[in-house]
Each structure stands twice: as C-alpha cells, then as structure tokens.
Amino acid sequence: MLSSSRRTLAALAAVLSIGLLTGCAEDAQPTVDTATSSSADPTPTREAQEPSENSSAPYSDEENDSKEADEGRAGSSAVGTASAMLDELTVKGRAPKTGYDGDLFKWRSDTDHNGCDTRNDVLRRDLTNITLKAGTRGCIVLAGTLADPYAGETYDFDRSANAVDIDHVVARSNAWQTGAFKFDEETLKEFGNDPLNLLAVSSSLNRQKGDGDAATWLPPNKSYRCEYVARQIAVKHKYDLWVVPPEKVAMERVLDKCEDQPAFAEDVDWPAPGDGDNVTTKEETRPAKQKSSSSESSGSGSSGSSSSGSSSSSSGSSSAYFENCTAAREAGAAPVRSGDPGYGSHLDRDGDGIACE
Fold first, then answer.
1. pTM over 0.90
2. String of b and e for 157-192 (b: at least 16 CB within 10 Å)?
3. What is the distance, to the nearest Å, from the Cα of residue 72 to the centroid of all Cα atoms in its chain?
4. Burial of 218 (0-12, 13-18, 19+ CB in 10 A)
5. What is the pLDDT along the chain (357 residues), one digit of tens a residue?
6. Which strands make up the sheet holding 280-282, listed edge to edge?
7. What is residue 81's DSSP assignment?
C-alpha cells in the first residue's frame, strides 16, 4: 500500500515537470503575427533615419543652386573662352597708386607709324559713314555715325561737337595698380595706344566710368557686357596684369550669363590712313577758327598771343572746354591740337599749337 502511494506521487511529480518545461519553451519562442508586422516599418529606428557616411543625402534647394552655379562655371571654362583666359590671370590685392600719371602712357601717339594719331585711328575704325578732312593724308575724321556699344544707341558724330570720347577699356590707373607700374616707357606707350584697349564711346558714359573696373562699373547696355568683360580680360592677359578679388568675382558673374563667350584675339591692327566705312572727303569749314588763325598770325608778341588764345578758347568753348590738361586727358582728348574742340592757349604752354602733350 505504501509503495503504491509512492509510485502515484512519483508519477504526479513527473507530470508537473513536463508541464513546467513546456511552458518555458513557449515563452522563449513566441509566435509572429504576420498581419501586423512588415519589413517596411512605418516608424523606422534612428539608425534607419540617419544616412551612413557613404550614403548620398539629397541636396537642399540652396545647395542645388550652388551646385548648378559651380557646374556652369566649370562648363564655361572651355579652351578658347574668356572664362578660361580669366582663370589664367593672377588674383591679388591692388597696388598703391604712387607715381601714377596718365601722361606716362603717351595717349594719342602714332605707335603704328601710319601717320595718324591714335584718336583718329579709333574713330576711323569704330565709326561708319565717315567723312575725312581733305589734305590730312586720310587721317582726321570730321563726321560719322557712332553705334555706342556702352549705351546701345546710335547717333551722329561731328568733330566740332566733340561728343565722343575714346575709352581705355582697362583704365590706365587701374592698369597701374594691377602691374603697369613695373612697365618700361615703351610698354606704357604701347598699352596707352593699343587698339585692343580703346573704344569710341559717348563722352558722358566714359566720364561716368572713370577708372572703374568690372566690380564698380559695367556698360548700361547689358547685351554688351559679355564682350566688354572679355575684352578687359584679354587686355590684362596680354600685358600680364592681375585682377583684384572683387573684380574677378564680378567678371565671373557676367560670364556665367554668357554662352561660352569667346576670348578676344590680343593682336588688333589699326586701319590704314583713308580706310573706313563708306569714306568721303571734304574741306573743313570753320569760320570761328579762321578768325582766330588770322589773329594768331597777325601778332607774335605776348599781347597778340593772349588775344589769339582767348579767341581760340572762346571759339572752342561753344562745343567743348577743358579747364586744364587733367580734364582734357580724363576726357580722352589730349593732346588737343589747334582747331580741335576744347583747344585753348591756357592749355598750350609752349605755344606750338599742341596742348596737353
């Protein structure tokens, strides 16, 4: 009886052990509810939200704009473009203006020895429907039509009105402060009379520009800005001048809007005397000048000289007047010859008929 009870207890213990083991096994291996679980969890972990170092995150709008601008500059630096030429220029700060004098560049010299001064070379090249003064070896332009690239306007030119200036595309003082202070005398003269660096433009815009670079002045005619900047770059490249940082940024900004603006050829020639568009020749009729000339020829003394100078100055003042040679040079008119608008004895110190030499 006792042993039967022991066997019964042993059997019950065995049953309880099996039940406990089965319960632990079920807790260790839970079932998965496939209806509520997915590999695309709508609430990702932090690791899933943050890209790895090797992943490529999308650009913001600002970053995309910057990237496109960089790609545009890279594309516009193709060989033979103004952008590629700009990339070859040194970039550094502006040098002092110490020692600068516009006369050092000897503007209006006949550097190509064609017998004509540089101002009239520019006019014969840039004007159309030209009238030349008879008896001047085909040099002096009396009239014509100017398509002003800076203004984008066309108007008539009359020598007696002197409404046209000759602009140094890279201003002489700008050149001086970006390397020209190192030039020898001949190089300064070449720069001052280089056809690559000279354009006939309206007097008002030339004086508005002053000695500004691309960072401080651009032509009002926006359609000409690409060519204008390309020309400045070519001048600086030819003479190994540098650009200052704001100047380069401004040039890049302009060129970014141009479709691979070609680089300017650095070697440009003047037209031969008598050459030009639709050229005619006539005698110059200037009654005021004839009256002044007779006064000059009738008196060689100091009083006669003063009288003739006053008459000449007043005759010229109706169209142009320069208070001093600095004003004449800034206007691109120096040297001013007897008979030129603006000529006066107060400018011609040696009385040889050529003022502000």
1. no
2. bebbebbbbbbbbbbbbbbbbbbbbebeeeebbbbb
3. 18
4. buried
5. 444 444 545 554 554 444 443 444 334 333 333 333 333 333 333 333 333 333 333 333 333 444 433 433 444 478 899 999 999 999 999 999 999 999 999 999 999 899 999 999 999 999 999 999 998 889 999 999 999 999 999 989 998 887 899 999 999 999 999 999 999 999 999 999 999 999 999 999 999 999 999 999 999 999 999 999 999 999 999 999 999 999 999 999 999 999 889 998 888 888 889 888 888 888 877 544 444 433 333 333 333 333 333 333 333 333 577 878 877 766 767 777 777 778 887 786 555 566 776
6. 153-158, 141-148, 127-133, 280-282
7. B
Q: Which residue has the tokens 């679980």?
A: 37
| DSSP H helical ranges for the chain | 2-28, 46-49, 61-75, 82-87, 118-126, 172-177, 185-192, 203-209, 225-238, 245-255, 287-298, 302-317, 325-330
